[in-house]
Amino acid sequence: MEIQLAQRVIALTPSTTLAITAKAKELKSQGHDVIGLGAGEPDFNTPQHIIDAAVQSMNEGHTKYTPSAGLPALKKEIAAKFKKDQGLDYDPSEIIVTSGAKHGLYTLFQVLLNEGDEVIIPIPYWVSYPEQVKLAGGVPVYAVGKEENEYKITPEQLSESITDRTKAVIINSPSNPTGMLYSADELKALGDVCLNHNVLIISDEIYEKLVYGGHKHTSIAELSPELKEQTIIINGVSKSHSMTGWRIGYAAGNKEIIKAMTNLASHSTSNPTTTAQYGSIAAYAGPQDMLAEMREAFEHRLNIIYDKLIKIPGFTCVKPQGAFYLFPNVQKAAEQTGFENVDDFAKALLEEAMVAVIPGSGFGSPENIRLSYATSLDLLEKAVERMHSFVEKNMK
Ligand SMILES: Cc1ncc(COP(=O)(O)O)c(C=O)c1O
């Protein structure tokens, strides 16, 4: 039988991350000592009290469906977290628990966008934003965050990108892949543009807890009641509590939007996994000291590795203020070592230096590579040394 797949999946851009990861695995299975810097998840285990709470919930018989928008007890903890961290008040009807932040975003685009509606996506972007917008019939409109502006977009760029089809803009601070963090003033200026043009703000705050250098994370929603009205916050426990595999995220904002998302969830996921929701209650209600420990470990690695990375000839790198990625511009290094483009340079780094990094092309930024420092300091130091020798050896 000849299979005819739907146009919407044929149009999906294949993940560049997967291609590199597959090649790295193949080399590893052949006995090569590959160092993988592609990880998009913290390298710490989920704290034990969260695991214990999940197991206990199962032993107590909490193994059935929950409401589609999530357990009321979990929504209560999420509302308390918003109050404590951002001073924001959300009613339970303004919160939906989703199967990971990714599925929260997916559901949001599905309920928001009509065919041809535009969503402004700053470049460099997290790989799933454009694909999710397209899957919902929307059109991604890109605004380039320039390296000289720390990969941030300006209010002028945002204004210029707005048309009468603009529905929303995505703000991801701290950012994957750059680690960039917007200040409160910068957010306010972007927020004013959105208020003036009635553009919804989708604020992806999944890396909120991973901020360095004494900087503070600000949610655009906390800057004024008007901005809170205009914003849907996306967040979750994946990165903050090292719970990527549990698949629990959430969205908070306008009641009508949350209600539509809940209706859609009731026909797609039914509810996020019950056990994982119980674990997430413990994540927010229990001790938070491991969050600080993880943050400190990441910051320590960042400071050591960043200094070594920028010494590699042809590498420039804006120092990240959050998340756990470095996003150096390596265009010059690629040219000086005789490669046509950074994709080929990244391929050679893997095949010859045995270091797996993600080419920036997948993030809309073809002069960069993304390195994750969610791995041990030993391996990170070894990986950067290998990259440095590779570049020096091949310099023309
Ligand atoms: C910017 C950004 N948003 C959302 C997500 C998705 O998080 P989750 O694992 O909760 O689906 C990720 C995960 O890599 C991310 O980097």
The gist of it:
This protein is α/β, with parallel strands linked by helices and 396 residues long.
Verbal overview:
- Its cofactor is pyridoxal 5'-phosphate.
- There is one protein chain.
- The protein has 2 domains: 7-45 and 290-394, Aspartate Aminotransferase, domain 1 (Alpha-Beta Complex), CATH 3.90.1150; 64-285, 3-Layer(aba) Sandwich (Aspartate Aminotransferase, domain 2).
- Helix content is 44%, strand content 13%.
- It has 15 helices and 12 strands.
- It binds pyridoxal-5'-phosphate.
- Pyridoxal-5'-phosphate binds next to helix 5.
Biggest beta-sheet profile: 7 strands, mixed
**Would you tell me the overall average pLDDT?**
96
Class by SSE composition: alpha/beta
* Helix percentage range: 40-55%
Number of helices: 15
Assign an overall shape: globular
Q: Which fold name fills CATH's third level, the topology of the largest domain?
A: Aspartate Aminotransferase, domain 2
Please mark out the parts with pLDDT under 50 across 5 or more consecutive residues, or reply none.
Answer: none
First CA to last CA: what distance? 53 Å
Describe the strand arrangement of the main beta sheet, using strand numbers: 2-8-7-6-5-3-4
Radius of gyration: 21 Å
Query: β content, as a range?
Result: 5-15%
The bound ligands are:
pyridoxal-5'-phosphate
The CATH homologous superfamily of the largest domain is called Type I PLP-dependent aspartate aminotransferase-like (Major domain)
Number of strands: 12
Number of domains: 2
Give the SSE string: HHEHHEHEHEHEHEHEEHHHEHHEEEH
What is the class of the largest domain in the CATH system?
Alpha Beta
Q: Tell me which CATH architecture of the largest domain applies here.
A: 3-Layer(aba) Sandwich
Cofactor: pyridoxal 5'-phosphate
Keywords: Aminotransferase, Pyridoxal phosphate, Transferase
Family: Belongs to the class-I pyridoxal-phosphate-dependent aminotransferase family.
EC number: 2.6.1.-
